[in-house]
Structure formats: C-alpha cells, structure tokens
Queue: 3 jobs
Job 1
Amino acid sequence: MTATRYDYDALERQYVQGSMSLRALCEMNGITTWSVVTYRAKQFDWARKRETFQETIKHKDLEIVAGKRAAKLEQLTDDIIDTIHAAIFRFVEGMADRVVKGEDGEFLIPGTPVMASDLVKLIDKVQLLKGQPTSREMKLGLSLHGELDDPTQLPRELLRELAHAAREAGAGTSTGGSSPLPRIEGARSVN
C-alpha cells in the first residue's frame, strides 16, 4: 500500500472533529496498516488541530449558553419592571379614599396612607434600578497632634470650642446623595 492511497484530508477531518483514537479511525475506515496514518497525523499535527477544534467548540458552546442567559436575564428584567410599574399604579389607586355602596348605605374606605419615609425608600429603589447612588456618606473631622504631659489638664472650654468649630465646618457624618428628598430614618408606624 502506498501513502497516496488514502484520502488523508477526510481522515484528518474525522480525527480532528471526532474523539476516536488513530487506531479506531483506521478500523472505522478499513485501513489495516494504521502506522502510515499515524505517521501522517504526526507530520501534520492532527492532535494540536483536534485540541484547537475542541477549544473552539467549547467557546462557541459557552457563547451560546451566555447568549441564552443574557436573553433570559433581559426578559426577566423587563418582566420585573413591568410588574413594578403595575404595582405602582395599584398602589397609587389604593392611596385614594373610596366610597362603597352597600345595603346599609355608603361607606368610606380610607386610602393607604403614605409616609415621607416610604417615598424616600421608593426613590432610593428607583435610583438603584437606574444605576445611580442611593445615598452617600461624607465624613469630615478635625485632628490635633501634640505632646501633653497630662491630657486631663486641657481646658474644657477649649475642647467645647473645638467641637463647635468642627461641627460648624461640617465634621461628623452627613448624608447627601442624588435623592431629591431628605433621608428619613426610623420605622414606619401604622395607626
């Protein structure tokens, strides 16, 4: 048998795109002298080509999976925004007082009371969904350095004046962010 007798291009494609050994490839194609095919495979680096092909397939599979996940995430985000939108409209409808007619006459059903803290929380959530900061903290301070023999001997009035000056200059923690309403702390109370 001569080396030109076999269709090496077809054998290479089968090997590179498959997972069989060279011996199994030869048996599958009815080749009894598999050493000739092994020599050709080494000469043209079929093993590296198979590895490259499998990496390409793996990356394509990952891209397909990532594309499907991105599409699902986009749809989920759209569904969540639609749900929030519908919930806001229902919430707004529930804020209004309603008059209900019954057998005993008309009844007033009071709407849902909305507290300023509820609005602040809602605005913070909208800011978060828009990718904007919900709040920021800024800390300013005053630092004094020196050597004292006895720190308890500092005049109390001097310490009070330093603390007052630091507060006037904005020392401490203050919140300021992109929320148009002031931050209101504390739990909501329902009467």
Job 2
Amino acid sequence: MVRSSKDAMDAALKSKTNTPGMCQKWTRDWFAAPSSGDQDKDGDSDAVDGWRHEPVSARHEGDRKPPPGKPLAFKGGSKGHGHRCISWTGGTTRSTDMQNGRYASGIVGFATIGEIEKAMGVQYLGWSETISGLKIPAEPKPPPLPPLPAGAFEVIVATNNVMSNPMNKHIVPTLTASTSTPTVVGLQEINPAKFKAAAEKLKGWDLCDIPAGNNYGAGIMYEEAVWELKGKRYVKQYDGVANISYTRHICIARLYNKKHKFDAIFMSFHQVSKGDDNNRKRMRKEALAILRKEKDRYVAQGVPVWIMGDYNSTATQHTSADVVLKHGIDHIYFWNGKEETGKKRATRVVDTKSDHDVFIARFTMKKVAKKK
C-alpha cells in the first residue's frame, strides 16, 4: 500500500534537496510508490509515463484546484520529460527544482502550478487519485460532533500565524482552503503590504488591518455575512528591540452577530519569542499585563471575549478564562458574557507544514435566561 496524502506530505516536507531531472522518482518516493515504468516506450520512465500510468478514471485533467497531498503532472519541458510534484494546502505545491516560486536546480520548495509552468516551460495536465496506478488511501474521518443542545448556537473561531506558513504569499487561498468554517480568524504577522493586499481581496470577508508602520502585527478577519464591525482598537503591547522583535500591537475588534444579536470582543495577540535575556522577559511581562488589562475592561462590560494568539509558549497564560484551548504555541481563550455563555464543542487543526497550523475552535453558545 502507498502512503496517504498526509504521510506523503510529511515525507515531501523532509526533502530539502533533490537530484535534478528525477522529479517523477522523487514524487513517487514521497508516496512510497513503485516505478511506473516506460509507458510510452521512449526509453525512460519520466513524469509523462507517471501520468499515463494513472487510470483515466482517477485523473482530474486540467483541474487547477487539487486537494492537498495528490500527485500533479505536467507535460513538455526542454527535453519533453514533463514534471511531477505534490499538491499542498493554500493552492500551492511542493516541488523538486523550485524554491519560492522560482526555478532552483536541486532544491525542493514551494510553487504554484502557474509558477512551475512559467519556470520550467511545461504545461499542466492535472492531478490523480492514484500514484503509479495505486489508490492513495483515504484519511480517517474525524468523529462526529456532539449535537447542539436545544436553543444553542455555534461560534467558530481560528488563529493562524501566516508568516510561519510556508506559502505565506498565498494567504487568500490558504484561508479559503484551510479555514472555510470559522467566521472570525485571528492572524499574526500579517502586516506586510503583500499580505494585507491579498487578505483584502478575500470576497465576503473584511480585515481589521494594522495601522501603517506597525510591522508584522496582528489582525482579525471576519465573515461579513455573520458579523458587523462595531469598532476596532490597536493597543501597543511593547516597543520593539533590535534583533528580538518589532513593536507589536494587540488588535481588538468589537463585532455584532447579526443572526443571534449580540456583541462580542475578539483580540489577536502575538507574544515575543522565548528567551532568558532581560529584554525578552520584560517584553513578555509588559505584553501580558496590557493584554489582561484590555481583556478585563471588556469582561467587566459583560460581553463574551475571545483571545486568539501566538503565545510562543505552551504555558497557560490566562488562568481566569472559562475555556482554555491550546495547540502548541497557538492559544485560544474565552470568557463568558453576562447574557451569552459558551463552552468548547470541538477543535480542529489544519496542518500547514510549519510551526503554526491553522487552529480552529468550535464553541457551543447559549443565551442566559433573563430573570423575570
């Protein structure tokens, strides 16, 4: 049996270099698949042979939106051998002889289908559900969610540090492919102009962007059909120190849920990286003190409060939270409101093959019965 898509992606991520001209072998090795042989009888076993070996029924010819972890095929090139690689999350691929969307002989890196076509002079053929003619095993299905109690509703939030995402310049397809269920996403390190411009093109979403001059800050995106922006604030958490961190701000959005008619506060937060030097210790302490002060302000108002952030630590940072959820250094915290309370329904992780996955949390919410 060949490897699953996830296992093949794990293998591909471990590959940093490759033997030039061996893309077909490299790709099938990621899947632990046997050789496809010389299908066209031209004296070699190349990417074109790999494509011809896949059953017609398993091919998705011309489909430029393959699911992650599937073999892609191209034809043409300077010697007519075509090209083979593996699809990735966020509308990109992991490919031999490519790095950051450019041709790089002997380097395994990330590139879109279009970038491969341009760099290698090849033409995209499609993706397949098989490799070397063998079915790629399906990933196990997650267990079913517990049912919502009568009168309850759901709020789904997520956090993601896009700078640590290997396809960081593809932020829009990353969000649409990986976080299609959340309606609010806390983003960290999204400030550079290329991220901001891409995020603002995401149809049906709005970005609480970061004021000019704040490098690699935090932001919040929300689905406009679900939430209305009532206000936003940016609170400085510490001044930057050379070779440690940029000046950072907490992004705070007050959103109104149109269907269930309540206000909520969402905060996106990025902590300074770990370290024992005095500057880092001071900055971490200052940042948490300011964050807690801001959180307390809104908890006192009686509105539900979510904090989504990159804490650069696995320690519990907010012991007063009603819900504490952690995936590595990415945390989501929740405080009940006076009229709306919530509890964890489920969490989900979308593996972006970096130190920051997309961490998604589903909350079961209910209205507090008003006293007569």
Job 3
Amino acid sequence: MSRITTHVLDTALGRPAVGVPITLERVPLNGEPLVLGRGVTDVDGRLRDLAPPGAALHVGTYRLTFDTGAYFAAQELEGFYPAVSVVFEVQDSVAHYHVPLLLSPYGYSTYRGS
C-alpha cells in the first residue's frame, strides 16, 4: 500500500465513486510538478496504490488531482467541477496520508483521514 491513499464517495448517490481517474504529483517550490502515480478508484471508491510499493515519501507539497469530469460523464451526469485538485503538505516522511474526497455534482469537500 502506498503512503498516500485516497477514496472518493459520491454523496449525491450515497455510494463509492467507482472509476475516478486520479493523479498524484509532488509539487516542488521551483520547477515542474513530478507525477508519482496514476490510478482509478476501485469498486469501493478507493485507490490504495498511487505510488509504487516502497517508494520514498519526502517532506514537501503534494497534489492529488481527481478527474471528476470523466466520472460524471461516465455516470451521464452534469457536474460543475471538471477536476478537483487537493494540495497538501507531507511533514513526516514515514507517516501514512489518507486524503478522501466527498463529491457531488455541484460541490466537494476533503479532509485528512486515517
């Protein structure tokens, strides 16, 4: 399991959001973001393997980008946000960071999970 994980819940439908494409990037202070991993949420709305197993996690800024437009299109729904980017700080390189997304067509929220 990656040290950075996520899951997406579709709060409008009351179920996991299956098939959401997600990209994980490290965002340096100077320079271009570095893509660390990509994946798609499973039947439980989870993505447990964003980064390769055993990949080092460094203190710094990271970004999860959720392709919500693709998800809503697959559901044949119109959504207001075509993508959601969550930028967060890793302060402990050995900790686990779980960043869930609660999603509906016209809103979203996120928090640091466990």
